[in-house]
Amino acid sequence: MVPVSKKPRSSHLAPRARRASASTELPVIAITIGDPAGIGPEIALRAGVDRAVLKLCKPVLIGSRALLARVARTLKLRVPKDVFDPTSEFAAADVTPGTVQAANGAAAARWVDAAIAGCRDGRFAAMVTCPLNKEALAAGGVPFPGHTELLAHRCGVSGEIMLMYDRKIAVALVTVHQAYTSVPGSLSVERIVHTGELLAQALRRLRKGEPRIAVLGLNPHAGEHGLFGNEESRFVVPAVEELRRRGVLCDGPLPPDTAFAPMNRKKYAGHVCLYHDQGLIPFKALAFDDGVNVTLGLPIVRTSVDHGTAFDIAWQGKATHRSLVSALMLAVTLST
Amino acid sequence: MVPVSKKPRSSHLAPRARRASASTELPVIAITIGDPAGIGPEIALRAGVDRAVLKLCKPVLIGSRALLARVARTLKLRVPKDVFDPTSEFAAADVTPGTVQAANGAAAARWVDAAIAGCRDGRFAAMVTCPLNKEALAAGGVPFPGHTELLAHRCGVSGEIMLMYDRKIAVALVTVHQAYTSVPGSLSVERIVHTGELLAQALRRLRKGEPRIAVLGLNPHAGEHGLFGNEESRFVVPAVEELRRRGVLCDGPLPPDTAFAPMNRKKYAGHVCLYHDQGLIPFKALAFDDGVNVTLGLPIVRTSVDHGTAFDIAWQGKATHRSLVSALMLAVTLST
Fold first, then answer.
1. Which of A276, A278, A285 sits opposite B286 (nearest CB)?
2. Which of A19, A92, B31, B158 has the most CB atoms within 10 Å of its CB?
3. Which residues belong to CATH 3.40.718.10 in chain B?
């Protein structure tokens, strides 16, 4: 049994998680180690033995045991006791850190699959993912560009939503990886309402009290009463009305430029952003190191680090596991 | 003669301004008081007697003397000695704070005109503007929606560029007040090059050393090598090449979401942003109270506060003149 602290250090934690940490049964959280040639294995090794983590959950690393042993030897790290390896045939000696390798992409996807299966059958309370490499996935014959698509497919859902979360700022995105010009055609009242509802649901677990959320406009100054652009009156105004009918405390359309000014960050627990950069520019400006990526709208709890594979510093002992710890703590809060 | 400090407190100031402050001739800076029913008159009164301001320049308030006296009486403020009033017939007693009035719009435009004329004939080294009200301008028969258009027309130029400046972040905008959907059609290599050149020129006066600037992409992840959107290869790549040919230290296209992360704010003295919210979302998140709006590409130096008329708190003694002081100090640096 790991020691249990009554005062967990992370301020990410809502009352629910504190109760979980004080119980005798800590939640079991799967950590997929991500692309073997990136920084994933290293940060997973560090997080798996991190005392702050062990106070709050029982982490299980999902990945190649041989690879983890190799990375641990290289960096003089300890391998945590709980490792689940569904790929015992994986040739860990063939991995070249910092490179795209087909076998790595294929294996990394299998580890994610194992975590999803474990979450769905109740062995894991949640899963936390280290970064994948899109090119390695493609080379390995994986028909998905990343976690989100893979998760949605395996869970048989659509309409999953990306939430970027930090104590200081939380943004949920109505559209994500698509061209600037294609955004207006992808907006609808339904999508905005769906995003707002999932954001409010998540914030009820993550923040104190009933959260108030903001929905941003698309145009400068939210279109200045229709002077430039009308997406605010077509999509945002009816979406805000519908969200209110559904019991969500909600304002909008907010002028995007002031939506993240200090007073509005204080006023709103979270923001619904209509496109990727509208949410991620302020998020990364304000919360670069601590951000957690949460997939909302899945039947399981999944959080992720807020960074990529960082091939340039892989296996060099330079990577910080700070974002992974934040992601783990958030997974605990959301799943317990 | 006002006292001269050898250690001005503002960190906005480059060496040039420090020299000016230590000389016997302080630059004369015009302050237009903006819409009479807004917070402009109040903050102008405060700035006009602010000791930090008086150490660096000789401010001249441009507006109705009777109105300034009325606001000063209401708020128990002092009227600075240098006031220029080209509208002695203005009925100050008719002004109702916090309301749109045709006479106010018409007068406010005349004050701006007087400042422009004074800058052009050399009486003023620069002009600093308090906020106008767009509806009052229209009601008063002024055929311009705001300062920028009025300035460009009176100075006979086009291609003026909006720079938002703060010690921590400086953004120059290629497009400003137009619908989201119209932005891609307004982009061109020439406009981006023009914006980058003016930004680099301004930063050479405002920051130490040769500035390095960043040009952002339009699409998420700067289009991820053409996967979504091609504006990066069509416009940004050739613009960055041309800027380099012209001797500007310049990188781009930068992925917008990480362009304002701490490491990139440190690396780049300024950012060229392709649309309003791409630049103003991070600017207002990081520099809400201290921002200065600078119009580049004019034959005169003009800076402005970074806020509106704030009708809701007009004449109540609640407005801070902090942004106006920043704007004044920046005007001194840019004009001396």
1. A285
2. B31
3. 1-157+298-336, 161-296
